[in-house]
Amino acid sequence: EYLALNVYVALCYYKLDYYDVSQEVLQVYLQQFPDSAIAINLKACNHFRLYNGKAAESELRSLMLVVLLTVWFPFFQDQSSSSFNFGHDLIRHNLVVFRGGEGALQVLPSLVDVIPEARLNLVIYYLKQVQYSECLDDVAEAYELIKDLEPAVPQEYILKGVVNATMGQEKGSLVGSSSSECDTIPGRQCMASCFFLLRQFEDVLIYLSSIKSFFSNDDSFNFNYAQAQAAKGNFKEAEETFLMIQDEKVHGDYVYISHLARCCEC
């Protein structure tokens, strides 16, 4: 009778980073309503967090088919056109995320005022470009997008802190030091970033080591973790972590090459 409550509970677990539990609760609803756009999208997001973008995109295909049918055959639409437009926008947005930012500049700008997460994901895209190119224009674009945002959730505090840090300010500690977030994964990432900026690498390793198991295949995490290890003179551990990185762009980065060479010499 109250099956829809499972979707809300699943969303709460998703927000708390309990993706496997979220999936279990959500499945109760999907067994009765397998075509639910909201439930399918949440399932895809869970798969993205638990596995990877390809697994998430695979879960989203059924929803993509429904939206395409409404575009090709308008008589399939039994709801308001605005709801179908939002479904189409949601798919476009999530595919950019699932594909690691592919097509971000073509899709996300038009969705900034439609889907709240689009603004944050566009900021993340610009920050990733800065990581590889150090282009000041990308920093400025990220700052313009987020400067007027009043953070309401931990992710927004973290992202605004990172952008301000890139612009020469340090506000990331706001989340990491809070009593409600200090023991969460985002909170520890935040504190590690703050200590990294302060070059307190022993503290960086304490925080990153505590969440390492969650990011074993994350190139950005391994890049930062390896640099911190090298800074503390743990060259063997640093070399092993550097060699775990798969991204070819990182392989061509001077910081990567110079640090790896130093590790090999030692």
Describe this structure in words.
- There is one protein chain.
- Helix content is 70%, strand content 0%.
- It has 266 residues and is an all-alpha fold.
- The protein has 3 domains: 1-74, Serine Threonine Protein Phosphatase 5, Tetratricopeptide repeat (Alpha Horseshoe), CATH 1.25.40; 101-173; 184-265, Serine Threonine Protein Phosphatase 5, Tetratricopeptide repeat.
- The termini are far apart.
List keywords for this structure.
266 residues, TPR-like_helical_dom_sf, Serine Threonine Protein Phosphatase 5, Tetratricopeptide repeat, mainly alpha, cell projection, Tetratricopeptide repeat protein 26
Q: Over all CA atoms, what is the radius of gyration?
A: 20 Å
The helix/strand order is: HHHHHHHHHHHHHHHH
Number of helices: 16
Cα(first) to Cα(last) distance is: 66 Å
Please name the CATH architecture of the largest domain. Alpha Horseshoe
Question: How many structural domains are formed by the residues?
Answer: 3
Strand segment count: 0
Fill in the CATH topology of the largest domain. Serine Threonine Protein Phosphatase 5, Tetratricopeptide repeat
Tell me about the largest β-sheet.
none
| CATH class division of the largest domain | Mainly Alpha
Structural class: mainly alpha
Share in helix: 55-70%
Shape: globular
InterPro entries: TPR-like_helical_dom_sf, TTC26
Family: Belongs to the IFT56 family.
GO biological process, one term: intraciliary anterograde transport
GO molecular function: intraciliary transport particle B binding
